[in-house]
Amino acid sequence: MTDSKTGSGHAASVTPHDLVFKQFLTHPATARDFMELHLPPALRALCDFRTLRLESGSFVEEQLRPYFSDVLYSLKTRNGASGYIHVLIEHQSTPDRHMAFRLMRYAVAAMKRHLDAGHKTLPLVIPVLFYTGKRSPYPWSTRWLDGFDTPDLAEQLYCGDFPLVDITVISDDEIMGHRSMAALTLLQKHIHRRDLMALLDRLATVLLKEFTTEQQLASLINYLVQVGETTNAKTFVHTLAQRVPQHGGTLMTIAQQLEQEGIDIGKRTALLNVARAMLDSGFDHEVVMAMTGLTADDIAQLLC
Q: How does pLDDT run across 204-215, given as a tens digit for each residue?
């Protein structure tokens, strides 16, 4: 059987369970009867079954298709919002302890597909498990949060706002106290400024505290070179090298090469010239790659 609507044509997915399930549940009138019979009253009242439409595809992983089958229907809610009903049937005789988590994963996958189609808001996805196993009644919770050791804490985390670090509203004075994160946060907060010189004193102060490793500094300069929009990056790096003597060698090498070439910051040519100068000065290949973002192949070509 090849069903273009359900994506069940792959040989590995055609089992007797799969075949009979989809013969029934892919029939719109039968699916409507199923949903009107088995959805809880509150969810049933939410759905406009007149708009029910079978969607293509499956969310079940290939290796699990002998054990699970699924169908997806789209519909409108009573207030006109987009929604879906995803019905999953479990063929295996031993029920999956974490089936509720699987249902949540598939619901999120349906939401992503909805967004990928160009919609701007998340749809409601109603997961439904159709259980036919040998063990009765169904032994596991269908509330996915109950899969955690601490369901109450999980509910607090996943049903509330996620932690947000919005560096655009954190003052520079506060960032200065962020220890080993201060240099990165300062530079990322101001990376799109055309004039970075106002940041110089603060960044130098942070680097002098020696929270930042040589590799981390290399990554920061690489970030500045590739992403920064400043018009005076060469001067900025040169001045920073004078202010931070423990990193002066690395910074000065980059600043001198950029100034000599007069190349616009952010272009690949600039990175190649910086890398060549560092290699000529005896820098380790790994350090050069970390600082410039170039690949091992790029470095090999420079050494030819």
A: 999 999 898 887
What are the residues whose beta carbons fall under 8 Å from the beta carbon of 168, sequence distance 6 or more? 189
C-alpha 203: how far from chain center = 30
Q: What distance in Å separates the CA atoms of residue 44 and residue 37, rounded to the nearest whole number?
A: 9
Q: Give the burial string for 66-77 (b: 16+ CB within 10 Å, else e).
A: bbbbbbbbbbbb
Distance CA 121, CA 238 (A): 48
Residue-wise pLDDT for 180-233, tens only, equals 999 999 999 999 888 888 899 999 999 999 898 887 887 788 788 778 877 777
Name the 3-class secondary structure at 165.
coil
The pTM assigned to this predicted structure is 0.73
Structure tokens at 4: 């273009």
In this predicted structure, the answer to whether residue 55 has a pLDDT above a threshold of 70 is: yes
Give the helix ranges, DSSP H, for the chain. Answer: 16-25, 28-38, 41-46, 99-116, 151-158, 172-175, 182-190, 200-208, 214-227, 233-243, 248-261, 268-280, 285-292, 296-303
The predicted structure's pLDDT at residue 290? 79
**Contact 288/278 with Cβ under 8 angstroms?**
yes
Residue type, 188: Q
Cβ atoms of residues 103 and 138 within 8 Å: no
Query: How wide is the angle at C-alpha 112 spanned by C-alphas 107 and 116, nearest 5°?
Result: 150
At 194 the pLDDT is 85
Q: What is d(CA 98, CA 255) in angstroms, rounded to the nearest whole number?
A: 56
